[in-house]
Specification:
The complex is a heterodimer of chains A (125) and B (299). Chain A has 125 residues and is mainly alpha-helical. In chain A, 87% of the residues lie in helices and 0% in strands. Chain A folds into two domains: 1-55; 59-125, no CATH class. Chain A is built from five helices and no strands. In chain A, helix 3 (61-86) packs antiparallel against helix 4 (90-107). The longest helix of chain A is centred in the first third of the chain and has 31 residues, at 25-55. Chain A starts with a helix and ends with a helix. Chain B has one domain (53-298). Helix content of chain B is 87%, strand content 0%. In chain B, helix 2 runs antiparallel to helix 4 (100-132), helix 2 (37-88) runs parallel beside helix 9 and helix 5 packs parallel to helix 7 (194-215). Chain B starts with a helix and ends with a helix. The model of chain B is unreliable at 166-178 (pLDDT under 50). The chains are: A mainly alpha (125), B mainly alpha (299). The A-B interface holds A 52, 56, 58-60, 63-64, 66-68, 70-71, 74-75, 78, 108, 111-112, 114-115, 118-119, 122-123, 125 and B 17-18, 21-22, 24-25, 28-29, 32-33, 35-36, 39-40, 43, 46-47, 49-51, 53-54, 57, 60-61, 64, 118, 121, 124-125, 128.
Chain lengths: 125, 299
């Protein structure tokens, strides 16, 4: 509820800024966006991620954390990429999203190799 | 016996509870991050493959190992057995044993080790591949492999029963009325291989009930138990897979339940295959027992 209120305040501030200083509006928008993202990350997303990870602790070790971490990474990267695309730098956005995707895949490489090893151990006999 | 089942249930059921929790988690994540849903499904499949399929793979490897060691044992024991048969001479004539049966049993185990189990592995891998990439589906192929294997195994078991019944004096019919309801129960409730199981158990039962005169009921029972333990274990695990698939169907992805179901089917066929090994073992063990008894009583 507090978060919703904060979002409304940010929205109003942005609207005011667009009237007060239209030339400065894009850069102020970007800075407020990132500031607010950081705020949300610290107050809402991180604690929720931790409780979520604790909730699914019975799952075998790396999977729950890996899945939550990669999902959060993907979501953040998507947000930032969308933001860049809105500012008119669509190709840069695609590039950054691609890089984050590769990072997520690298997180999963160990698990993938385990699967491949399991299957190939079946086949080699 | 109860501890044995608890052991299986404990090790296998854990994995299934993990599947259920993982599907719940995937549901949560799908709700929060709908754009990631394709990958959530993929990672869920990963979890299923690495954790849940472990028991299935273990069974496959176990049966393979058993087949290998039994075929090795047969190779070493059969010359001795044949020599003993020749040495006992006329005593064997009245029993009307089929010496070819030994060769047949060995051949069946060899076939199992070299052909049937690798084919089953191929079926599992094809199933997994077709679930991972639904566009490139091999599900018909793996179904074909499974049905072919089942047909092959049934044919082999029929051949066994022919050998046994032409043995003449060795077979007498079990009292059919008593076991009929149980047979019907098994036939109805074990999917895929139910009727096969009753038929083949009937065939081998006919044989061993004849042999019980010579060997004694308890010995037969213990041989049966030893030979059938891996089979029973496999059967039970297969059932657990299908139960889990049924349990998580309402809220899980179709792929996950499909994988579990397919693996269950494959394990049923593996169970049928392991029957072949069990038969060969039962036959050889009983044969050895009777041979030893004959040799000792003739003197």
């Amino acid at each position: 509820m507090i978060t919703l209120f904060q979002v409304i305040v940010v929205f109003l501030v942005l609207l005011l800024l667009s009237f007060a200083a239209p030339k400065l509006h894009p850069i102020l928008y970007v800075s407020i966006f990132f500031f607010f993202l950081l705020h949300l990350l610290i107050t809402v997303i991180m604690p929720f991620g931790k409780t979520f990870a604790k909730l699914f602790e019975p799952l075998p070790d790396p999977f729950a954390k890996l899945l939550i971490g990669s999902v959060l990474l993907y979501y953040l990267s998507e947000l930032i990429a969308k933001h860049m695309a809105e500012a008119g730098y669509a190709s840069l956005a695609a590039l950054s999203h691609f890089a984050v995707k590769i990072a997520i895949l690298t997180l999963w490489i160990q698990q993938t190799s385990a699967v491949i090893k399991l299957l190939s151990s079946l086949l080699s006999k | 016996m109860i501890a044995f089942f608890q052991n299986i249930v404990g090790s296998v059921l854990n994995n299934f509870i993990i599947v259920i929790i993982a599907t719940l988690m995937a549901l949560f994540i799908d709700f929060l991050f709908p754009t990631f849903s394709k990958w959530t499904r993929m990672f869920l499949l990963f979890i299923v493959i690495t954790i849940v399929l472990q028991p299935a793979f273990e069974h496959l490897v176990l049966i393979q190992k058993i087949a290998h060691s039994i075929s090795m044992t047969f190779l070493s024991i059969y010359p001795v057995l044949t020599a003993a048969m020749i040495a006992s001479g006329g005593a064997f004539g009245m029993l009307n044993f089929q010496p070819a049966m030994l060769l047949f049993a060995n051949g069946a185990v060899f076939l199992t080790e070299r052909l049937l189990i690798p084919l089953l592995t191929a079926a599992i891998v094809l199933d997994l591949a077709s679930r991972l990439l639904p566009e490139v589906s091999f599900s018909k192929m793996s179904d074909l492999i499974r049905t072919t294997l089942l047909g092959l195994v049934s044919a082999l078991v029929t051949a066994y029963s022919i050998f046994i019944t032409t043995g003449g004096t060795m077979s007498w019919a079990m009292s059919g009325f008593a076991s009929e309801p149980i047979k019907e129960l098994v036939r109805q409730n074990v999917p895929f291989i139910g009727s096969f199981m009753t038929e083949s158990l009937g065939a081998i039962g006919k044989y061993s009930s004849g042999a019980a005169i010579f060997a004694g009921g308890w010995l037969i029972t213990s041989i049966w138990t030893i030979a059938l333990v891996p089979t029973l274990k496999t059967l039970f695990t297969a059932f657990l897979y299908r139960w889990t698939a049924a349990l998580i169907e309402p809220f899980a992805d179709e792929d996950i339940t499909g994988v579990l179901d397919d693996i269950g089917k494959t394990l049923f066929v593996l169970c049928a295959v392991s029957f072949l090994i069990a038969f060969a073992l039962i036959y050889t063990a009983l044969f050895t027992v009777i041979l030893v008894k004959l040799i000792t009583t003739m003197k």
